[in-house]
Amino acid sequence: MKISVLNPHLGISVYGNQIHNYFLKYIKSSSNILISDFNIFRILKFLIFTFKKPDLISRKFFFKSLLSSGFKIRKKQKLYEAVFDFSCREEFINPSFLSKISKKQVFHLGDYFFGSSIEKRLKKYSECKNPILICYFGAGLDEKYLCYLLEKYNLKKNLLRVPFGCSDRFIKLNNMNKKNILKKVNKVFITGSINKIRSIENTEAEVEAEDFFKSKKLLYMHPLRRSISLNKHLFNHKYFKVHLPKKHEGKAPDIDLINTMKRYRYSFSTNSIFNFLPSKVYESMILGCVPIFLEEDFLKELGFKHNFNCLIIKDFESINNLSNELRSITKIDDMQYYKISTNCVKFAEINFTHERIKEFINKKLKL
Fold first, then answer.
1. b/e per residue 175-189 (b: at least 16 CB within 10 A)
2. pLDDT, tens digit, for every residue of 8-39?
3. pLDDT band at residue 200, thresholds of 50, 70 and 90?
4. What whole-number distance in Å separates Cα of residue 99 and Cα of residue 79?
5. What is the spatial distance between Cα 13 and Cα 31, in angstroms, rounded to a whole number?
């Protein structure tokens, strides 16, 4: 199987929080690298990064790819099963060239706000011969934003949903034996930022999304999170550990996330307006912190089962009703909690490592 990676130095989370480390695995296993962005500063940054990860890619291989990519005219060009682009930018994409050299052109959509305008990207991707769009699980299902754009550019059948991966720092610290699981504090942990759709950066992607959601009277990325913050009196310390911005807006205060997830029994997932599960869901599971979800059809597709490896709240009429539902979960007896937590850890270990996500993508793409 011959695959190529386009502009690895632009890949999402290459230098960051490890939630897309399956991309690094594609860099490592690629038979060639294609470069269309020759920004010297970005390339140098990537080269410095490779010194810290010498097993990722040899600098000789990278320089050779860089030089060969620099030639505008090439007599012979290899044919790849797939070319992967994780840059979330359309300005370095040449649809006709990629279509000539690969059977499948695979693009990651990111979280829509990373990189350039999602509509500009989809328009460019639609010009490829066989584009495959990777997005997070849940995206494009219940929210209309991505659905509308996919239909506009006839790409709805080209979507491949993947979960976030558990970063190595969580997996290495997993020591969830029975004693440690039952020692966890019987509370529901709630955390996350509360940001407006349009931030002070005022990017093109943010303006685009805000214009779409304005008619729905949605101003915040996580409306439910904000509602919980505004009604903290309903989420008291006896049953909850709420770690949200003090002024109901902005970034959540810094916290030792790993030790916090290791400490509490449950975490409540509050999806964004784009509907995909946050990365913390997958990471918390590795540490025996049972996720609590609002009912969504895609949870079954991911393999989640109520009272087996997670807990699901069907619906709630008010924020007060939600508080009561979450509070009742803390009354689950120790042995039932232990079984769910143990299944939760095993499920995450089997399905949400970066190697497994890469295997999942390859299987879906028939690579």
1. ebeeeebeebebbbb
2. 888 766 655 567 778 888 888 887 788 888 88
3. low
4. 10
5. 22
Residues 95-139: tens digit of each pLDDT: 999 999 899 999 998 876 666 788 889 999 999 999 999 988 766
Distance of alpha carbon 132 from alpha carbon 105, whole angstroms = 6
Q: Which residue has the higher pLDDT, 219 or 174?
A: 219
| Per-residue model confidence as pLDDT tens digits over 258-293 | 888 889 999 998 878 887 787 788 888 888 899 999
Q: How far apart are CA 291 and CA 191, in angstroms?
A: 13
